[in-house]
Structure prediction request, 167 residues.
Amino acid sequence: MQKEKSELSMDLEQLYQFDGENDPKILVSVCGHIFDVSENKRLYGPGKGYAFTAGHDITFMLAKMSLSEKDLNRVHFQLSDQEKDVLVSWILSYLSKYPVVGKVKGLEDLCEEEWTRGQEKFAKRETPNLPFSSQKIGKEQPTDSTQTDSGEKAKKPWFSWLGGFLK
Prediction:
């Protein structure tokens, strides 16, 4: 399991300062656990695609596969089973890429079950099963602009462009 380097403990307000603007450290929180994503400035650095997530809790945003700023720092929510599975895959993905450096005060119990499932998968060295990989969320979605079984013109899933950023 991912060990926490040092036990940083801060509230959401304190987390906001770690956005890469005034401090070179870039931190994000998932389920109240703080990840240091500083090594990936090409995604999280100032002016980059995910810069708006730096210094925030991104749990709800990940579970919903949202890129909306209104979904940052949402800590009171209900998730469907499908969204919980998506969140577990994101937790596994973050554990595989970034060190956990602490916790956000008051969010220690946020999505505790999903966090535990993600840690267990990480310990088994499982691969994240995110919706933009070969598996799709819910109803099977076409992956290109070919014909569907019903003969309709298929559209790419809205999140298909993410694959290029994550290679």
About this structure: The chain has one domain: 4-131.
